[in-house]
Write a structure and sequence with these properties.
The chain has about 90 residues and is mainly α. It is about 40% helix and about 10% strand.
Length: about 90
């Protein structure tokens, strides 16, 4: 399978595009997200990845006005700008 189609399944993460992601600490797949981001970083892929303490999966969409969600939105917007200027 092409790495761009399923990057988490890529045997070698080198050459994948810069990645911006986030996860809630109590999301059911938080450990997998951390492992994937770690693999990208180890391969030299630029990453931006915070873990939001106490947050569930999709917290930023479920309760967009919550302070944690607003922090996530600011993180994403700031890093999109930064990554696009590369």
């Amino acid at each position: 399978m092409e790495a761009y189609a399923a990057p988490a399944r890529a045997g070698d993460a080198a050459g994948l595009p810069p990645t911006i992601s986030l996860v809630g600490s109590i999301a059911s797949f938080a450990d997998q997200a951390r492992a994937y981001i770690h693999a990208l970083a180890q391969a030299g892929v630029p990453v931006a990845f915070p873990v939001f303490d106490g947050a569930l999966h999709a917290f930023d969409g479920l309760v967009p006005a919550a302070p944690t969600s607003r922090q996530a939105q600011q993180f994403l917007l700031g890093h999109y700008r930064q990554f696009l200027q590369r």
